[in-house]
Write a structure and sequence with these properties.
By secondary structure, the chain is mostly helical. It has one domain. The chain has two helices and no strands. The longest helix has 27 residues. It is elongated, with a radius of gyration of 19 Å.
């Protein structure tokens, strides 16, 4: 069963990561000033929101690791 969990993680993680990378690439297309107009504040807000969500999700992985518990009286 552990092998299935590992294989499932790899399969899904690769697909989702590639989907996110593709979306980020599409987001980068908005930098074309021939088609779009934007302010530095808008760009900062956009990337701050993305970074905040990345940090939140990365913390979920760090927090889900095995916890060492010690018995104390």
């Amino acid at each position: 069963m552990a092998v299935d969990k590992k294989a499932n993680f790899i399969r899904i993680a690769e697909a989702r990561t590639n989907k996110i990378i593709e979306s980020i690439t599409l987001l980068g297309n908005l930098s074309n000033t021939s088609y779009y107009e934007y302010t530095p504040d808008q760009i900062e807000a956009m990337f701050s929101a993305i970074q905040e969500e990345l940090d939140t999700q990365k913390k979920r992985f760090a927090d889900s690791g095995p916890k060492k518990k010690k018995f104390r009286l």
